[in-house]
Design goal:
- By secondary structure, the chain is of the alpha/beta class.
- The chain has two domains: 8-210, Vaccinia Virus protein VP39 (Rossmann fold, 3-Layer(aba) Sandwich), CATH 3.40.50; 221-290, Helicase, Ruva Protein, domain 3 (Orthogonal Bundle).
- It contains twelve helices and nine strands.
- Helix 9 (221-231) crosses helix 12 (276-286) and helix 11 (253-263) crosses helix 12.
- The chain is elongated, with a radius of gyration of 22 Å.
- Bound molecules: S-adenosylmethionine.
- S-adenosylmethionine (SAM) is lined by residues 26-31, 55-58, 61-62, 76-79, 82, 102-104, 127, 129, 132.
- GO terms for molecular function: 16S rRNA (adenine(1518)-N(6)/adenine(1519)-N(6))-dimethyltransferase activity; RNA binding.
């Protein structure tokens, strides 16, 4: 019987044969637990008609499991040393295509058009390199890709922030940025022991389901996010102080007071207590003051 790539003995043999050594700087922590791999893929609800995009296939442990549940897989891998290994380990899966590229540099929309054309249901599934989790997730969310969502392993601490609700200590501008584009839920907590080498931090799998419409309609998205970032600039400060210190409003205190009255938000509240909808209201009401 063929062994899974993730089987610790198979993995050891593959790594030894190719003289592969892990690069910490590339976030290389490979999964060696079949149950976790199955569970990650199950969270993506793939069918035999689905397309999948993987980021960082490593030696193909997760790729193999994704491949068993989808029509086509495109995997972006930055580390050239892994390419000959992947062509060997993934040889039984001709519907997997590995692209040698930094995901942050890749034109993912173009790759989808070229490699996953005709496939309606596309998911991103990945055990992400932790040094670059947030830029990858924000790239995937903001590039308007035709995907249903993202299921990915990330640091537990980051997962807590992405899925955080207003009024909690984890809620910050990143929570709002992500939740503007997607519904976020933590679907699995993962111990360090299922990786080789074990990372220093705990992990979790998060599912981001892309929204068809944002949860709030704003006049100017860029300004909306600027207001959010300003409101969280110093966590212990009130909205009033953060906005005055971080937006050019120092000469407009009276107008600012009127804005807060009109939208019925107490300026003494902290940013961490506002919902996305309240931030939307605040940004639209503030915009005329800064024109
Ligand atoms: N998927 C494999 C697994 O689960 O065992 C490996 C996951 S490992 C956490 C992260 C992988 O991402 C590594 O293979 C690493 O080389 C790759 N990687 C790191 N930075 C990348 C980037 N910017 N673009 C694409 N791949 C990257």
């Amino acid at each position: 019987m063929m062994k899974d790539i993730s089987n610790p003995q198979s993995m050891k043999a593959i790594l030894k044969k190719h003289g592969f050594t892990f690069k910490k700087s590339l976030g290389q922590n490979f999964l060696i637990d079949r149950n976790i791999l199955n569970n990650i893929v199950a969270q993506a609800n793939l069918t035999e008609h689905s397309g999948a995009i993987e980021i960082g296939p490593g030696i193909g442990s997760l790729t193999e499991h994704i491949a068993r549940h989808s029509q086509k897989v495109v995997a972006f891998e930055i580390d050239q040393r892994l390419l000959p290994i992947l062509s060997e380990t993934l040889a039984p899966y001709p519907h997997v295509q590995v692209i040698h590229s930094d995901i942050l540099e890749a034109d993912v929309n173009k790759v989808i058009q070229e490699e996953l054309s005709g496939i309606e249901d596309i998911m991103v599934v990945a055990n992400l390199p932790y040094y670059v989790t947030t830029p990858i997730i924000m790239k995937l969310l903001t590039e308007k890709l035709p995907i249903r969502g993202i299921v990915c392993m990330i640091q537990k601490e980051v997962a807590d922030r992405l899925a955080a609700k207003p009024g909690t200590k984890e809620y910050n501008s990143l929570s709002i940025a992500v939740q503007y584009y997607a519904e976020a839920e933590t679907v699995l907590k993962v111990p360090k022991t299922v990786f080789v080498p074990a990372p220093n931090v705990d992990s979790a799998v998060i599912r981001l389901t892309l929204r068809k419409e944002p949860p709030v309609q704003v006049q100017d998205e860029e300004f909306f996010f600027e207001v959010i970032r300003s409101s969280f600039a110093q966590r212990r400060k009130t909205l009033w102080n953060n906005l005055l210190n971080n937006l050019p409003l120092k000469e407009k205190r009276e107008e600012l007071e009127k804005v807060f009255q009109a939208i019925e938000i107490d300026p003494k509240r902290r940013g961490e207590t506002l919902t996305i909808q309240e931030f939307g209201k605040l940004a639209d009401a503030l915009a005329p003051l800064l024109k």
